[in-house]
Write a structure and sequence with these properties.
Length: about 300
């Protein structure tokens, strides 16, 4: 299969992004932003030299699916995913933007990641092995790696500008956002996870854990609302990059599970003994192709649609 060249960098009519993350390019239009999901891929905290074709489309379109799905639970920042409705300065770049971008309302992002864990994996498994707890939450003895938890748990984290996010206690999170807002996002995180995990499981995907981001609508026109009422869902939702997706039909607790995200990439980087320091390696065509297949499969399973 001949893959199209990945989109690693975007411009809008020769305008460079105002901000860039590991994957996303962000363009500032005052009270609105355009967020573009590129095909960049990161591993071990570095953006790699190769992209994954269509990865940005998968992330943007899965998020759009979930933003629409969860509107009954919480409002979100999406204004439109149709480039014809974007600011006039961006419409000349519609071919690049279509399918991999969204116009969103500017918010004040909360300074915490809101993580829901339904299974014992990743840093949670390491924490449990050492302490019998995950992020300070005591769990039953004798759990195995990848076991389903008795009930999903909320484990906030700080947002790291580089490197890994740092798990924090609810008390520390409350100090950052205030107790009423923390109560609100804890409730929303667990409700969103329950809703998303149930749908995903019906489509053959286990959502082991995921992280959500929330923002505050600006004061002024929303002054009549309490602080917690100004909380809305932002960023991305239940994607392979923000979640741990496992195929349900192969689930076997007691060890790490295969995943729908960067497994082939991580396995390759471990196999070549990369020291996880610059210079970053590029990926062979086979790894790129197999990784793309997993991202696209996750999208098709979750949404029941072909990737646009």
């Amino acid at each position: 299969m001949l893959l199209a060249a990945p989109i690693l960098q975007t411009t809008l009519d020769n305008r460079r992004p105002d901000r860039q993350g590991k994957v996303r390019d962000i363009y500032d239009f005052g009270d609105r932003l355009i967020i573009v999901a590129t095909d960049r891929i990161s591993a071990f905290d570095y953006v790699l030299g190769s992209g994954i074709p269509d990865k940005g489309k998968v992330l943007a379109q899965i998020s759009a699916f979930w933003f629409d799905w969860t509107r009954a639970i919480v409002a979100n920042h999406v204004v439109s995913t149709d480039p014809a409705r974007y600011p006039v300065e961006a419409r000349g770049s519609a071919d690049v933007l279509r399918g991999r971008s969204m116009l969103v309302t500017r918010t004040e992002p909360l300074p915490i990641e809101c993580v829901a864990r339904g299974y014992l994996s990743g840093s949670g498994w390491k924490d449990y092995q050492a302490t019998g707890k995950v992020c300070g939450i005591r769990l039953p003895a004798g759990l195995r790696e990848s076991d389903r938890l008795p009930a999903p748990i909320f484990t906030p984290a700080t947002k790291a500008q580089s490197g890994h996010d740092i798990n924090i206690s609810e008390m520390e999170a409350a100090a950052l956002v205030g107790p009423p807002v923390l109560d609100r996002v804890r409730d929303l995180t667990l409700r969103l996870y329950a809703e998303g995990a149930a749908h995903a499981e019906s489509r053959g995907i286990i959502v082991a854990d995921t992280k959500f981001e929330f923002g505050l609508l600006p004061a002024g026109e929303h002054n009549h609302r309490s602080l917690e009422e100004r909380v809305i869902l932002i960023d991305e939702v239940l994607t392979p990059d923000s979640s741990r997706f496992w195929p349900r039909d192969g689930y076997a607790p007691g060890s790490a599970q295969p995943s729908f995200d960067k497994q082939f990439v991580r396995d390759y980087l471990e196999r070549i003994h990369w020291n996880k320091q610059p210079p970053v390696p590029s990926l062979p065509d086979e790894v790129v192709a197999r990784t793309r297949e997993k991202y696209v499969e996750a999208y098709q399973r979750l949404t029941g649609r072909a990737l646009a």
